[in-house]
Amino acid sequence: MNKSHNTISSNTKEAVTKEVVASANVLTAVRPALRDGLIKLLAKYAPGIGPAKAQKLVDEEGTATAIATLRKHIPRSAQHDVPLEDLAELYGLGLTDSVIKSAALTLGPDRILAVVRTDPYKLCKLPRVGFLTADKIARNAGLRKDSPERIRAGIFYALETALNEGLRAIGGHDTGGHTHLPYNTLTKEASKLLGLDAGSEDLVAEQVRKLLEDGELVAEIDPERPEEWYIYLPRLSSLESRVAKLLAKLAAAPRDKLPEVAAVLSGNGAEQLTAKQRAAIKMALACPLSVLTGGPGTGKTTAIRALCRAFRHIDASFALCAPTGKAAKRLAEATGEDAKTIHRLLEWKGYEKPKYNERNRLEIDYLVVDEASMIDLYIANTLFSAINPARTKVLLVGDPDQLPPVGPGNFLRDIINTKQVPVVELDLVFRQAARSLLRQASWRVRQGLPPYMSKTELAKGEAGIDPEDVVEDFYFIERRKNEEILELVLDLATTRIPRYMKCDPLLDVQIVVPQRTTKIGGTEINLQVQKRLNPNGERLPINGFRVGDKLLNKRNNYELGLMNGETVIIKAKIVDDQGRPAVLLETVDGEIVEAPLPSLKTFALGYAVTCHSMQGSESRAVIVPISTAYFSMLSRPLLYTAITRAKDLCVLVGQKRATIMAIRNQGDYTRHSRLGIKFAAELAALQESV
């Protein structure tokens, strides 16, 4: 017999071996998954069969009998039109019912198992399926740790994590918001998130290059530093570039001749304006895009009030807005003018296109945007798309020393840092504010100094102030143990401050925490306050809420008209017109909103909230627990933001050591953002073309 018929050539043998290994990488756990899935489904749907009986049935009578038994009992609605054997394997691989349902609608019920076998990371494109879920499924399916599919998915995960959560290498102070990552940073970050071995950056770099070639990622290069590559998700590259162009078109508009407003600025109380406040008003009246900054007590609100008088004096149309409902309400109260959230100004509801947009722009001469440090690229894009650069002038008002926005970019700071837009910074603390321990505390923390702890200490530190004139609206109460901190915070919030200030503990007192986790984090404090303030409220079947609770909205809800960060109180449980369970919510404006019970899933208890959640808001009294238990989050911007949320009283409770740690740590809130660079380049190009 010819020997060639009884042997396999070395080349053929190598090819077959590779194919077998490749198949094994994907399919190693598929058949055990069928067994596990059948056991789960039988225990779930077959009457009288628990996990032990289901296991015995599968192991002793085989998969065919198990599938036949399951077919008799599983409802069609639970199958989602997926073949029953496929369904069992998917369950065994770790897919949940909701993921299977979503996959059936998106991929087709007959294709899910094939997708999971070849590239489980395609599941990441499904709603509410993240990398970690897909990765668990992939590992159950036997996919290698260093497989190209896993590395590609990990690269996207690294960019999404940098956007939404922050870089793992930076730690607690990095709150996310990065629009891109430098090439080398991305390869290191992806390797770390994927748990790859040291030196695996080359494997990641290879997949980054392939994704760039396929157009699934975008690389931007700085002409002055061509060796530096900045890697973007395509949507964020486009978004950042679009905002830069919108800003440049506005900033390049010609300046108007300053209208005659001297009479307004010198009368009706305006004689108290400082030189910088006057300069800010003139800047806003003449410049197409300008910025007014300053800390608390420096007179930003006074300047805005005078600016509104100037608008009326020259018969100009104008609007005031802010990112949140609380900030808009505070702006309206301070100026006596109508002020709206950005969403309400643009009539922007849900995922629908706003009424005012690039094709239907706002018909106003001036727009004042307060709390501009909260604006991210998404909001900036929508807002500036609705502004006519040939008509409307925009004044951005904010404090760049506060925490950056929750969303992508660092809009206000980027604009200021370009030095392409006129900026006036108010830095004079008015005498009335200088006598306030609270205002002094915010100013000193902003400058990296410990706050004055008593009126005597303030009088010694500030020339010309009598101790008897000092307003005692800031206190530091030292407690060293976390249990003592927690107990005092609860006592202050529920009893002592409401009694001292004769105020409502729900409406007028707010606990502001550095983070939600830890034993004295927001989650635990909320539960403890609920027990003290609302122990007998009617229980609701969502998140442990009770009627009478104070809640924080964590997501924009356009149907209810409630924005992210707004607080409400559950006033009553009702049945709506269609017989469904609902609740009545009272907003900070006293408005009553009827909300379907399931909508409360996007809310959390709001007795204690994080500093980020309080941005743009204020409360009559603010209590800030401070401890080394929060060490990963302690920073100067965070403490400064927390203190400046107080209107009449702020009480720090905790450790001096933790307070000093926060003040000394400026925090690395630098974000990978190229908005400023793109804006400056676009503006220069427009100016050259004129």
Strand order of the largest sheet: 6-5-7-8-4-9
Provide the gyration radius in Å.
30 Å
Percentage of residues in strands: 5-15%
Q: Structural class given helices, strands, pairing?
A: alpha/beta
Low-confidence stretches are 1-30
What's the main sheet like?
Answer: 6 strands, parallel
Topology, number of strands: 19
Helical percent range? Answer: 40-55%
How far apart the termini lie comes to: 88 Å
Shape: globular
Number of helices: 28
Mean pLDDT: 89
Walkthrough of the structure:
Residues 1-30 have low confidence and may be disordered. This protein has 690 residues and is an alpha/beta fold. It contains 28 helices and 19 strands. Helix 9 (148-164) packs across helix 10, helix 10 (183-194) crosses helix 11 (201-213) and helix 26 packs across helix 27. The protein is 45% helix and 14% strand. The longest helix is centred in the first third of the chain and has 23 residues, at 51-73. The protein has a 6-stranded parallel β-sheet with strand order 6-5-7-8-4-9. A 5-stranded parallel β-sheet has the order 10-19-18-11-17.
